[in-house]
Description:
118 residues; three-stranded mixed beta sheet; 4 helices
Amino acid sequence: MIEFLNNPHAWVLEAAEKVSPGISADVVFYDREQWRKEFDKGSWGVTIFPDDGTDPLIVIRADLNLVESTEILAHELTHVIVGEKEEHNEIFEKKFEELHKLYDEIAKDVSGEVTHEN
């Protein structure tokens, strides 16, 4: 069996579930060509809230490095946590900070050191 022993993306998902139990979303990575066809070339990630009430879709550029994609995943998950109506306001910032703190605790427990500094 092959498994990741330290997976920052999984740590972000775990932290998000602690911040917002029952959170639900789908996450996909788009390659550069897909991204350019669908989204703003300057952005790194987007959260789509479907009109039919189904789970939000988080789309992240696949050409980002691990640190960048982990940070973008945390950012987009924060959008899911606070909801579509909350933009980058104080509520968003507080939840983002809470998510980062939990992520740091999880990372420290798994790896023995903090991998993100505020």
